[in-house]
Amino acid sequence: MGRERSRSGKAEPPFWLGSAEQVIEASVTAQRSIRQALDQAIAEVLSLNDNRVTHRRRTVRRLIDLSHPLEHGQLNFPSDPKISVVVHNTIQSIGYNITEISMSTHQGTHLDAPYHFFDDGKTLEQIPLERFYGAATLVDLAPGGSLPPKTPLTLKMFEPYSDLLRTGAKVIYRTGWDRMFGHPEFFSEFPTLTLDAARYLASRGIGLLGMDTPTPSVDWMECHHILLAKGVEIVIVEALANLDQLPRHFTFAGFPLKITGRDGSPIRAVAILDEDVD
Ligand SMILES: [Zn+2]
Q1: How far apart are CA 113 and CA 128, in angstroms?
Q2: Is the model's pLDDT at 34 over the cut of 70?
Q3: Are residues 127 and 220 in the same domain?
Q4: I need a surface site. Which of 1, 23, 134, 195 has the fewest CB within 10 A?
Q5: Alpha carbons 103 and 123: distance in angstroms, whole number
Q6: Ligand 1 centroid to 71 CA: how many Å?
């Protein structure tokens, strides 16, 4: 047998000069390598097609406005200063339009700095810009609708999201209450975070807590003390709008004005969505 001859050290003859068994074996090997080459060629063609498909897909960036409008005389908390937006001069009078505004640092859609409730707390310009921008999560507590007035927002309602409530996370919860903006009830009947829930969120070490109510809780003093305490220092974003247009994950941006040494600022809050389109 050829194999025996080969093992004995003698040169092997070309397969076509070998036994019928050798010829068959050589032909099977040749067929196998042809099949492998074909498989490889097919795989390459398929991957080229795949690349073409991914090339055709584009990412489109979409911005969603999360701020309520600022308007002269609009409702706010009765103890806050009234917003005033007054024409100061016009094109007819001096050649350009210029307006005088006067309002609280907590007018409309805005954020709170720790100094709002602590004299030794951080002021706006002491908070890094990264705290106002980045990956965010929506916790929708009223999918497709809105919560009844004064609904307590309990610890139990946030627990299912514990995986998302990580150190530094930006978390925005939705109650559907933004539809009441402009009505007195917006400031008196809003769904309200329980102090247990506030303590739970603070214990998770999140970095930003946003909401569509004018303040997190009717127990506003205690709640702000929990969320803004030294070492907790959550950026609180209040009175957000249009949260019903958001997916679970998005990029949040809401920068305060750089008002030196102060406690809060209106913001133009925006959600940035990167969507794949064909
Ligand atoms: Zn505020």
Answers
A1: 11
A2: no
A3: yes
A4: 1
A5: 18
A6: 18
